[in-house]
Amino acid sequence: MRHLRTSVPVALLGLLAACGGPVESQPEVEIATTESALNCDSMSRAVHHRIKPANEDSLYTLNANEAANAATTWGYTEDRGVAFLAAASTGTGLSPVYRIYSPSRQEHFWTIDEAERNDLMQNGGYTTDENVGFYASKTAASCLVPVYRFSNTTLRKHRFAITEAQRDALASTGWVNQGIKFYAAPESAPPVDTKFTFAVIPDTQNEVLTTPPTRLTHRLQWLVDNRSSLDLRFVLHTGDVVNWDTPDHIQYVRASEATEILDAAGLPYVYAIGNHDTAAVCPGGSACPGNVNANLRDTTTFNAHFPLTRFTALGGVYEPGKIDNSYHTFSAGDLDWLVLNLELWARTGAVDWAKTVLAQHPRHNVIINTHSHLNGSGAIEQSNGGYGNNSPQYVFDQLIKQYANVRFVFSGHTGNAAYRTSTGVHGNTIHQILTSYHENTSNLTRLVEVDTAANTFSTRVYSPMTNAEKQDGSKFAISNVSWVR
């Protein structure tokens, strides 16, 4: 098959882009992740996508006449519409996407990497240089979307995809994702997804007493399996992951192995430290010998089984190598979020560190995750447990209510479920939610669905194992929430 040619000037002829990519032996384009100083309005030309059914070659072109001619003359009869938007000429932040053709492969190919183009033309059989197809960006920008390249070794063809549905469709038919190759503009601005869910796991200390920890494993697998339907973005655990330590650390091993389900799925999470997750609690639940306060701060075993590398959204920690006091960030609902993981009955130094974190992230909606905050009746706990440092009331007064962007506080430790609102010094409403069931037949999980457009959140406590929701007042919906934007 001959490659496509038209009589239009080179400046227009170059406006083609096929699902090209390098052969697998070629290096990928190095894509930066900082926003380019580009004029997004320049990325306004439709890139038409046509496919030739006879050999699955793709044609991407800015020239609508060429697309039409390719269908009638060269057999590119499958019209996939507009793939994305690009620029017809160079500009700030834009780079040329080169168009080349291989007579032996009967394939059009596009690359933003000039070195890749040169190598393919010299060594890869792409002997025809069709100049610049269009202009795109090597770096991300808020108005752009990543363009992924897929290859099919059987067909010896390449193709582009920008949406998750397109990527899934290609992957399901044997195409291999070669990663992001450049950034272009979507045909129309993608709708903002304003709804998402995060999960809160209460005390699981009784779930790791046997091998396997069936209820814990079942819960985590259910969260992963329902990640898409829930639009689940983050998982919190409010502490007491285990019940006590033993010489073989078996409860930590069980919890760690179960959590590999989240690791494998790439689902971000964080575990708060409960008193049972420390050296303060010995087998049977009794206090361990020695200084009980020092034991409470000994979380060596926990951190050995849950090293910082497992927490993929981690932003920073108070003490090196310890997850006890840490912060984690993610984006969802078109807003930024920060999860502050705070130790039980916190030390003044940890509270002071947390103040610096919140002060440095004023535009993030803050979720505080700690083991003890509300008691079973819904009041803020006044005690430090007798062997901690500062009480939850101290933490609330010195930290939580002082920052305008704090929205949630989640805790466990005692009682079953409770809900309390307080007003911060800046007038913000602080939603405090206790979830602390110690049941032996279920795997209760709190689900919190946020809608940033409607300014609402709703929550329920659900047991995946029994397919039942708690009917104890733990299910409710809140409106008129003022999210940080």
Distance between the termini: 55 Å
Enumerate how many helices there are, as a single number.
Answer: 11
Regarding CATH, which class of the largest domain? Alpha Beta
Main structural class: alpha+beta
What is the approximate shape? elongated
What is the number of strand segments?
Answer: 23
Q: Which band does the percent of strand residues land in? A: 25-35%
Residue share in helices? 10-25%
CATH architecture of the largest domain: 4-Layer Sandwich
Our Rg estimate from Cα atoms comes to 28 Å
Question: Your description of this structure?
Answer:
This protein is of the alpha+beta class. The protein folds into two domains: 41-184, no CATH class; 195-478, Purple Acid Phosphatase, chain A, domain 2. The protein contains eleven helices and 23 strands. It has helices at residues 10-13, 64-74, 114-123, 164-172, 214-225, 227-230, 250-265, 292-296, 300-305, 348-360, 392-398, and strands at residues 45-52, 57-61, 78-86, 95-102, 107-111, 128-136, 145-152, 157-161, 176-184, 195-201, 232-237, 269-271, 314-317, 326-332, 335-341, 365-369, 406-411, 417-423, 429-435, 445-451, 456-463, 468-469, 476-478. Strands 10, 11, 12, 20, 21, 22 and 23 form a seven-stranded mixed β-sheet that branches. It has a seven-stranded mixed β-sheet with strand order 13-14-15-16-17-19-18, covered by helices on one side. Helix 5 (214-225) runs parallel beside helix 7. The longest helix is centred in the middle third of the chain and has 16 residues, at 250-265. Residues 1-36 have low confidence and may be disordered.
